[in-house]
Amino acid sequence: MKTLVRAMVVSLSIAGLTSCATTDETPIEESTPKEVVETPVEQTVAAPVVEEASTSGIAAGATYARNAINDPVSPLNQKIIYFEFDQSSVLPEYVEVVNNHARYLFDYTDIKVRLEGHADERGTREYNIALGERRAVAVRQLLLLQGVSANQINIISYGEELPAALAHDEESWGLNRRVELVYEGQ
Amino acid sequence: MIQSTLAKREHRKTVNNIMRFIKPLVFLMLISHALAASAVLRIEVTQGIKGALPIAIIPFSWDGAGAAPEDLAHIISSDLSRSGKFDPVAPNDLVERPQSGADIQFANWKSSGVENLVVGKLKLMGSGVYVAQFQLFDVYKEQQIVGYSFPVQITQLREIAHDISDIIFEKITGLRGAFNSQIAYVSAIKGVDGNRDYVLQISDSDGFDPQTILSSDRPLMSPSWSPDAQQISYVSFEKRRTSAIYVQVVATGKRRLISSVQGINGAPTWSPDGHRLALTLSHKGNPDIYVLEVASGRLTQLTRNRNIDTEPAWNPSGNSLIFTSDRSGSPQLYEISSSGGRAQRLTFEGGYNASAAISPDGKSIAMVHGDQRGYRIAVLDRNSSQLRILTDGRLDESPSFAPNGSMIIYAASGNQRGVLGAVSTDGRMKQRLSLSEGDVREPAWSPFLK
C-alpha cells in the first residue's frame, strides 16, 4: 500500500497539474457579492519541452512495478545467469536473481519470459545446444518452484551459436555460458 | 530475413557416360564466378606427402589467343596431391613439356622416378565450345593407360578437370575418385550493420565456386546431404521462438519445414536409403534421438533416456545409428539399432567423444575427441578398436568423410575466424582451406554426384 501511494504522489507532481494556478483575486464589493470564478492562467512564457514521464502501474500487493524489468536501477535489470564449465546447476549467487524474476512473474501472470540458453564454444555444436537447453531448464525449474506458471515460460537454446564474447579464452568462455531472461513487448 | 538463392545444379554422369553432359541451366553462375573470386576457399598444404606416388602432369597445351581460360593441369595436380596418395612434380621441375604422346621422351622421366605422366590439350572450337583431352601414360611400360576427349562449355572446365582427376585416381589406385564432389558448409559473415549474417554454401571439393543456397540473419547449423545429393537438411533459427529443421532441394531452392516443435529441433541426418531422417528432439523433456519417415511423417523415438542423446549418424547398412550420449557422465559414442533397443557404448578412451561421422565402408568412425590438449579429430577403427588422433588443433570439430573415404574435412579455429581443414585418412596429408572472408564451420562432404 505504501508503495502504491508513493507512486501516485510521484506521478502527480511530474504531470504538473495546472489546476492549482492562482489568479489575482478581485476585491469583492460588499454590497453585491460576486462569485469569484477561478480561471486557469495560461503561461505566457514558453514552457520547456519535457518528455513525458513513463508511468507504471503496480498490481495490488506486487513486489515490483510492471515496468521494473526496464528500470536500470531495479534488481530485475539483471537478466543474465552465468554457469560453470560443463555445469547446468544455478549457482547460489544467482538463485536470488532468479527468485526476483520469479516474484515478478508470479505477480503478473499475463507476462511471459523466454529463457535463452547458451554454452561456450568448446565441444561439439549440437551437444552444446543440448547443454544450453539444460541450463535454461534449470532456471525454469527454479521459477516453477516459486509458483510461476509453466505457460509463462518459453525456452530456446542457442548453444554456442550466439556468443556474447568472441575471444578464445577463459574470460570469453565464462561470459558465454549463460541463460538470458528475455521479456518481449514490455 | 531469409532468402533462398536459386542454384541450378549440373547432373553428374558416371565415368562411362562422360561424353554426354546434361548442360546446366546456369543461373547466376557467371556473375557469381566474379563475386566468388573474392570469397573462395583457398587451400594451403600444411604437411608434406611422404610415400606418395610421383606423377608428372604437364601443363595442357592451348592454341587460343591469350591465356587459357583455366589451367586444367594445375587443378588436376592439386586434386591428386590433396588426396595424399600422389606427389605431383612441381611445374618448375618438369624436365620437358610434351604436348602429346608422341612428344614424350620416356627416358627423361624414368631416371627421375616418375611412374605416371599426363599430357593434355585444351582447344577452342568456336562459340564457347571447347575440347579438353588428356592421356595418362605408364612411364616404365611406355604405354598409354587411358585417354579421353571431351566437348565442354567454358563453365564446365573446372568440372572436367575434376573428372580427369577422378579417372587418373581410379586407374592408378583402383579406388573411386571423389574430386567431382561438393562441400556444404555454414559461414558467418559480419554484415555492414555489425551484426552477423549466416549463409549456407556449397562449393566444389577444392573450395572453388561457392554458391549460396540460403542466407539468414539468424544462425544456421548442421547441414546434411541426402544420399542422392539432391537435397540438404539443416537447422535454422529464423523462426526466433524455436529452432527448426528444413529440407531444401539444392537445384531449385524450394524447401519444406520438417520440424519446429518446442525445445530442440536438431542434428538432422539422412538414412542411407534416403527415406528417413534421424534427428534430435527434446519436446518430451530431454534430448533424444528420433527417426522420421520423410514421406509419411511417421516419427519413432529411438532413445529413451533422461540424459542428452544427440548427433545421430547412420551406419552404411541403415540398420543402426551411432550417437552422442552423456549418460555415463560425459559425452561418449553409442550404437543403437534403427529399431531401437539397448545402446552399446563404443568409446572408452578420453573424457569427451562426440559428433560421430562414419566412413563409407562402415569400418571407421571419425569423431571429436576432447582431452587436456583440447578438441581434435580422431578415428576409431572398429575392427581393432584402435583410436588414432589425426589433427592437432585445439578446437577441431565437425568431421565429415569424402564419399570414397580417403579424406576427412573438418572445422578448425583459425586466427580470427573458423576455417576448414582436410586430412587424408591415412594421416599423411593435411591441408587448410580458408575463406578470404567469413567464419566457416560445419562442413559436410557430399555423396558421389552420380
Number of DSSP E strands of chain A? 4
Q: What's the helix-strand series of chain A? A: HEHEHEHE
User: How much β-strand is present in the residues of chain A?
Assistant: 5-15%
Shape of chain B: globular
Termini separation of chain B:
34 Å
The neighbouring-strand order within the major sheet of chain A is 1-4-2-3
Report the end-to-end length of chain A measured between terminal Cα atoms: 24 Å
Assembly status: heterodimer
Structural class designation of chain A: alpha+beta
Helical fraction of chain B equals under 10%
Q: Biggest interface and its residues per chain?
A: A-B, 22 and 35 residues
Poorly predicted residue ranges of chain B: 1-39
Instruction: Categorize the overall geometry of chain A.
Output: globular
**Largest beta sheet of chain A, briefly?**
4 strands, mixed
Number of strands of chain B: 31
Residue-averaged pLDDT of chain A: 80
Outline of this structure?
Chain A has 186 residues and is α+β, with helices and mostly antiparallel strands.
